[in-house]
Automatic annotation (TrEMBL):
It comes from Sus scrofa (Pig). Its cofactor is Zn(2+). This is Carboxypeptidase A5. Residues 380-392 have a biased composition (Basic residues). One of its GO terms (molecular function) is zinc ion binding. Coiled coil: none annotated. It comes from the Eukaryota. Keywords: Carboxypeptidase, Disulfide bond, Hydrolase, Metal-binding, Metalloprotease, Protease, Signal, Zinc.
Length: 402
């Protein structure tokens, strides 16, 4: 019935044809080592009221899940963006149409963009090998980024060092760059990127920012003043297991790779695993959900490592988490609509920041999303360059280093 989405169904395909299509897709994915998303679309829905938002939230609660929300149902003024697998398109579109929910197609075929991205990476890798240099205008694997970190620290040992703060679920090193001009336990700023593993543009932003810091120290007054007074800690790969998996098998993987006995689905949304607001708005208790918060606060080793490092340091003054979608600046708390105690201080700072970053970019859409926090919370703001997306693609097959 059109009033509720049913099991998988492709456009005009018989059940036998659909099964054959799925079998062929799995065979192709196994042969290429990557999942295939041919025919998957990204739909944008603008809900007019809370009732329509509720209808969209019902899609999120389906088991198994049939849509992947890139921008979830929040409030009527914000669009809802969701990836719909090809096998579910007919049912999901019928559900939207039966409830009078107007939608537009943002991305007609995700695999086309993935193929373009993979081709660009291969070309860049060939150029890097021939030039024996690291390209700051291309995406890189986990191994390439960790190799770059070692070289970067060696080259700039007067100001940068590497700290291992823990290990991931699959026992990969969790590394942090420390930018410091000397002293111990100085006031510090924490910056992390890539907590959602598929947001490759954030890792690239972290690398680009790290290079910018060392190049500008001693030349730019603001960067110089900050480093003379404070340290900067930067975690470029906050989710190493998930990031490795996006390169080896599933480009759109978002969570980490943790597994638990008796639970079929794997992975936890690390950005929902913090103690602050655990289990609240924007998270899900379904282990198969892209926003699954995990069994308990800080249950994931990737989150626990950050919490232990920051609390043991004791003098972190600001937390900034860089994301790649929604084009917004958010400050504490991201899980609540209640005003924070220092709202009157944060709001002017946020307004000034977004204005300056918009002016520094060629267009407002050239801003990527970040999360700005304090010691008490974690949330979400805005940053300029590199460009986070093209043609509605939030993970960015092309970007610039202006």
């Amino acid at each position: 019935m059109p009033g509720s989405p049913r099991g998988g169904a492709g456009h005009g395909l018989s059940p036998v044809d659909r099964r054959m299509l799925l079998v062929c897709s799995f065979v192709l994915a196994a042969a290429l080592g990557q999942m295939n998303f041919t025919g998957d679309q990204v739909l944008r829905v603008l809900a007019k009221n809370e009732k329509e938002l509720s209808l969209l939230r019902d899609l999120e609660g389906l088991k198994p899940q049939k849509v992947d929300f890139w921008r979830g149902p929040a409030r009527p003024s914000l669009p809802v963006d969701m990836r719909v697998p090809f096998s579910e398109l007919r049912d999901i579109k019928a559900y939207l149409e039966s409830h009078g929910l107007a939608y537009s197609i943002m991305i007609k075929d995700i695999q086309v963009l993935l193929d373009e991205e993979r081709e660009a990476m291969a070309k860049s890798r060939r150029l890097e090998r021939s030039a024996s240099s690291f390209s700051y205008s291309s995406y890189h694997t986990l191994e390439e980024i960790y190799t770059w970190i070692d070289s970067f620290v060696t080259e700039h040992s007067n100001i940068v060092s590497k700290i291992q703060i823990g290990h991931s679920f699959e026992n990969r090193s969790i590394l942090v760059l420390k930018f410091s001009t000397g002293g111990s336990q100085r006031p510090a700023i924490w910056i992390d990127t890539g907590i959602h593993s598929r947001e490759w543009i954030t890792h690239a932003t972290g690398i680009w920012t790290a290079r910018k810091i060392v190049n500008k120290y001693g030349k730019d007054r603001i960067v110089t003043d900050v480093l003379n007074a404070m340290d900067i800690f930067m975690e470029i790969v906050s989710n190493p297991d998930g990031f490795a998996f996006t390169h080896s098998m599933n480009r759109l993987w978002r969570k980490n790779k943790s597994s638990r006995p008796g639970i079929f689905c794997i992975g936890v949304d690390l950005n929902r695993n913090w103690n602050s607001g655990f289990g609240g708005n924007g998270s899900n208790d379904n282990p198969c959900s892209e926003t699954y918060h995990g069994p308990s606060p800080q249950s994931e080793p990737e989150v626990a490592a950050v919490v232990n490092f920051i609390t043991s340091h004791g003098n972190i003054k600001a937390l900034i988490s860089i994301h790649s979608y929604s084009q917004m600046l958010m400050y504490p708390y991201g899980h609540s609509l209640e005003p924070v105690s220092n709202q009157e201080e944060l709001m002017p700072v946020g307004s000034l920041s977004t204005g300056l970053m918009t002016a520094a970019s060629s267009t407002p859409s050239a801003l990527s999303s970040v999360t700005l926090g304090t010691m008490a919370s974690c949330c979400r703001p805005h940053r300029s360059s590199p460009q986070p997306r093209r043609h509605g693609w939030p993970f960015g097959p092309s970007w610039s280093t202006r």
